[in-house]
Amino acid sequence: MKNLTQQLDKYFFWVLMFLAVFIPLYPKFPLFNIPLTYVAVRLEDLIIATVVSIWLFTHIFNYKNYLNQTIYKSFILFWIIGGLSLISALLITYSISPHLGLLHWLRRIEYMSLFIIAATTITKTWQVKVSLAVIFTTAILVAMYGFGQILFDFPVISTTNKEFSKGLVLFLTNGARVNSTFAGHYDLAAYLSIILVLIATLFFYYKNLLHKFLLIALGAVCFVLLGLTAARISFFATFLGIAATFLLGGKKWLLVGLIGASLLLVVAIPDLRHRLVATITVNIMGGGGAKYTPPPDKVTIFTPKKAVPSIDGSGQVATSQATESGAVAVDTVPGEPINTTELGVYRSWGIRFDVEWPRAWAAFLKNPFLGTGYSSLTIATDSDYLRSLGEVGILGTLALILIFIIIIKKMIIFLRGNTNFEKYFIIGGLGTVLVILTSGLFIDVLEASKVAEMFWLILGVAWAAMFLRSSEDRKL
């Protein structure tokens, strides 16, 4: 078995690279649907499950070594608590459907298992560098496809609602927020945030002018595409992540350039600018433009457009428009903003504070220790922290926090006294963690399949990189 493991390990790295390409690029076509939800099983689920099964088969006899390592024990602890939460939800709180709870639990294991697979597969520095080359090359293709959706009507596969998730081939309308291959602009933005942080860090390692030029070009394209998603939290998270890597890398003077580039992007992209302004004027200050007050004896007439499947700027089906000058959106209620951008920002804020977050908090109070189980909070909570508290309680949340504490602590310790390639990569790894933790304040980024899978995979590569030039044991 040991010889078989060694033979398979020679090729398993390339299996990992295949996943690094396939996960971001393959659209979210449903393979088969699950009753009571529009979350479908997709081809990537089966491929990852197969990879995990092969890894388990080839490493099963080495389990004692893995169980002696703190990082792997923390993952297992989190999964066990998730399983206990599932049992509690079925037998005590009666808050989930068995098959949905099991599906969501297995999905968490699926995403996070890529960390372990990457961390145990990468054994050479050249593999880390190849991994980054593959990740960056894939990012180029993702960006090209995203711009293709805007400029050349490349098709969109979205999962933002029940109808879209059936695998409909859609097209963006003018001013719509780009999705690329990520089935949602928030997911694409979170992915681009990770890529941008890695680019900003590794730029200073490479001395070759061609490498620097390629990184600058990729960074510029991804930065503009990030702006076109108009995802405010990801934009802010990217700024924080890059700023943190500049500080850790001793490049404080570049903060001025980062601020300038960010302001330039905000000025150049109206949708991003308007949403940022509306966040302040509507959500924080409670003001904004005019509010809708329906005329006493007047009905606004709406005329259907040509029934071509498309996505508007809010990610919804665009099949109708108002014919009267100054008419408001068909579903606007009295007191809501008339301006469509302000309306979207207003509702985005309201659904969190009035529906999703109170629901998550109520679930936490119902069972503070184990929560009400995976899937009990429906598809979205728009906050990873409140979602975790509501679904797996304080025990599951603390177990998840423990994983991040171990990873962050080890990375910080590693940075002391290291000046090689791995140092730059680990600084980027810390930046990606900051990006995800910041994004998780307002979106379910750890539940977004493509983002979560790539995040844990990259973090696993970073974990492996810390031991390539060191003889110390992988225990903390």
TrEMBL record:
* InterPro entries registered for this protein in UniProt: WaaL-like
Keyword annotations from UniProtKB, A to Z: Membrane, Transmembrane, Transmembrane helix
TM region positions? 12-34, 46-63, 75-96, 102-123, 130-152, 188-206, 213-246, 252-269, 392-412, 424-445, 451-468
Record's protein name: O-antigen polymerase
Organism annotation: Candidatus Daviesbacteria bacterium RIFOXYD1_FULL_41_10
